[in-house]
Amino acid sequence: MIERTLNPGEAASAADIQIALDEMAGTGGRLVLPAMELELDRGLRLHSGVTLCGQGESTILRKGPGRIYPLTGYHNYGMCDVPLCSTDGLDVGMTVSIHDNRTHGGFYETFATITWIDGDWVGLDQGIEADYSADQEPCLTTIYPLIFGHQIEQAAVRDLRLEGNRSKNAKAMGGCRGGAVYFYQSRNIEITDIYERDYFGEGLGFQMCRDVVIKDCRFDENTGNGLHPGAGSTHALFENCSAEGNEKSGFFFCVRANYITVRDCTFKRNGTGLAIGTRDCYNLIENCTMQNNRAAGILIRRMPTPTEVHNCLIRDCDISGNGAERGEGQIEIEPAAHDISLVNNRITGHSERMTAGVYTENGVHDIYLDGNTFEHCRPNLATAPDSLTDDSPQIACGHDAAPNTAARHLGFSEAGWEIKP
Fold first, then answer.
1. Which of 25, 239, 330, 353 is 20 to 30 Å from 288 by CA-CA measure?
2. Which pTM does this prediction carry?
3. What angle do CA 16, 20, 24 make, to 5 degrees?
4. Mean pLDDT in each 10-residue stretch from start to end of the chain (421 residues)?
């Protein structure tokens, strides 16, 4: 493998680092940053076969201040440019987001790189994702992931500290299009020994990805979720990670995040500890700690058939002291979840606010409990009629259980990501 270690002069700006990453785009390799503290004016884009490394907590990358550039008015879907009231302070190569008050968040937000500037028009490396309404304050903002990859494979990020600098950013990055670390339509990605905090958005997110490994990482004090696998992502392993002090969930399974293992992880002082939702099935959560979150330690979210949660195993976890502000139980299961196994968990109620150990609503069924212990829960079980079963579901779940068909909905071919017309 080609390896290059940058000295402080060669890593004096995000643009300099990006040049070095781009030089490895054809060959692959390992780019090592020095011990340093650097403010980024753009996100760092990874390429297939490239590993970006630092020197642990002595390599600090901090997001630069966010700026807001109003559009002159309506602009429509698919255009690779936007008209701005002013382009002062923008440069080619910077990463930006475009949205209005109606489309902010979700996949209608556009994330792109500036390719040209002509007067007050800015060119983008991709078409905008929505019509941006003139009466909804459309704008371009300098918000971006600190490190990201789109449609890549065999890439890694290791041994870095990332600071989101949210007090200097007036707009958040939507979780579907970005996070402090973010991957999209990618495969065989590794993220290890990353300490991230304080981002105006989510700590880690990936959408439409497969074969992702995240180990020994922390994602703390973000305004969104700490960790967010979503949009059909499959065959992922989270091991020895933590998320603390995030305003939303410590860990948030999004739409159709399947065959994922979350092992030896800790989620404390978040909004919710861990949340499972739309079509998030065949997932394994084991040996994890969900503690002192403001709502439930584990929330299985309300979803109608056929998008309900099913076939998940939660075992050997410590779920304690959650629900200080809201929620009905340490573990809450909403309709129409079924075939959920809760095995050998230690469940402890909040010391001051009454919460059940396990709470289920009408419409939940085939919840299997075995070997769980309860302390200070009031009551241990607050379960709807017919929600429990004595028969252990036969569940093949977690990243090791993913069948060959688990990622066919993503359009991956053996050669890599297959671009659809």
1. 353
2. 0.95
3. 160
4. 94 98 95 98 98 97 97 92 96 96 84 97 95 92 97 97 96 92 97 98 97 98 97 96 98 96 98 96 98 98 94 98 96 96 97 94 96 97 94 91 91 54 27
Which of 229, 139, 132, 237 lies closest to 188, judged by CA?
A: 237
pLDDT tens profile 387-408: 999 999 888 999 999 998 999 9
For the chain, what is the HEC assignment?
Answer: CCEEECCCCCCCCHHHHHHHHHHCCCCCEEEECCCEEEEECCCEECCCCEEEECCHHHEEEEECCCCEEEECCCECCCCCEEEECCCCCCCCCCEEEEECCCCCCHHHCEEEEEEEEECCEEEECCCCCCCECHHHCCEEECCCCCEEEECCEEEEEEEEEEECCHHHCCCCCCCCCCCCEEEECCEEEEEEEEEEECCCCCCEEEECCEEEEEECCEEECCCCCCEEEECCCEEEEEECCEEECCCCEEEECCCCCEEEEEECCEEECCCEEEEECCCCCCCEEECCEEECCCCCCEEECCCCCCCCCEEEEEECCEEECCCCCCCCEEEEECCCCEEEEEECCEEECCCCCCCEEEEECCCCEEEEEECCEEECCCCCEECCCCCEECCCCCCCCCHHHCCCCCCHHHCEECCEECCCC
Rounded-to-integer distance, Cα 234 and Cα 407, Å: 6
Spatial distance between the Cα atoms of 318 and 276, rounded to a whole number of angstroms: 17
CA 118 to the chain's CA centroid = 35
For residue range 190-238, list pLDDT tens digits in order: 999 999 999 999 999 999 999 999 999 999 999 999 999 999 999 999 9
Whole-number Cα distances in Å, 413 to 114, 150, 154, 164 = 30, 16, 15, 35
Rounded-to-integer distance, Cα 101 and Cα 143, Å: 15
Q: Which two tokens stand for residue 413?
A: 């071919």
Q: Say how far apart CA 259 and CA 281 lie, in whole Å.
A: 7
